Amino acid sequence: MRRFSTLTSLALLLSLGACSKPGDEASRTAPAPSPEPTTASIPGQTGEPTRDPAQIAGVVAAFAETEIAISQIIIDRNIEGPLRDFAVQLQQTHRQIEERAKAMNASKDGQRVALQQAKAKTEVKSLSEEQDDQALMNAYIAAVVRDHGDALKQLDAELIPAANGELKAFLEDVRKQIAAQHEEAQALASARY
Q1: pLDDT in tens, 176-190
Q2: Nearest-CA neighbor of 48 among 120, 119, 112?
Q3: Looking at residue 95, what DSSP letter applies?
Q4: Buried b / exposed e across 118-149, counting CB within 10 Å, b at 16+?
Q5: Which of 125, 122, 128 is nearest to 77 (CA)?
Q6: What is the mean pLDDT of residues 114-139?
Q7: Considering the entire predicted model, what is its pTM?
Q8: Rounded (10°) angle between helices 111-129 and 133-154
Q9: What percent of the chain clears pLDDT 70, i.e. is strictly above it?
Q10: How far is Cα of residue 50 from the mean position of the Cα atoms in its chain?
C-alpha cells in the first residue's frame, strides 16, 4: 500500500510539473492553432473566415474596444476590490492592444468587425442597465470570461492561421495576453460576488 501511495504521489508531482503559467502555449486555454483559417465556433458567427490583414486587425481592435467599454462600467460604478483592480488592468492591456491594432491599419468595416461591434453594443447596454452592484459584478466577470474564450477560439481557428509576418507575431502576443486574462477572469468568476 505504501508503494502505491508513493507511485501516486510521484505521478501527481510529475503532472503538476507539466503545468504552465497562464497564457503559455501549454496552458489549458491554449489549444493548438488551426493550420488553415476556419470559422470559429462562436454563436452568431457564420460565413467565410477573413483573410484580409486590415480586417483581422479590425476584429482585434473591436474586441479590445469591447473590453475597454465594459470595464469602464465597473470603474464608473466605483466597484472596489479585486474586480476593480482586474477591470483597470484589463483596460490598460486592451488599450495597448487597440493601439497596436490601429497601427496595423485596422479596418472599421467588414462582417467580422460588425459582428464584434454589435456584440459590444449589446453587452455594454445590458451591463449599464444592471442596477444591483453584485449582479453587475457577476454579469461583468461572466462577460469577460465568455468574451475572452470566444476571442481565443477566433484567434486559434481563424485569425492567427490567416496572418503572417508582423501581424501574425502581433496576434500570437495578443493571444498570450488574452489567455492570461481569461484564466484570471475564470478565477475571479469562481469567487461569485
Answers
A1: 999 999 999 999 998
A2: 112
A3: H
A4: ebbeebbeebeebeeeeebbbbbbebbbbbbb
A5: 128
A6: 94
A7: 0.76
A8: 170
A9: 74
A10: 19
The contacts of residue 86 (CB under 8 Å, 6+ apart) are 141, 184, 185, 188
Is the pLDDT at 1 greater than 50? The verdict is no
Q: Residue 24 above 60 pLDDT?
A: no
Cell of 66: 469591447
For 16-52, letters b (16+ CB in 10 Å) and e give eeeeeebbeeebebbeebbeebebbebeebeeebbee
C-alpha span between 185 and 162 (Å, rounded): 28
Compute how many other C-beta atoms are within 10 angstroms of the C-beta atom of residue 158.
26
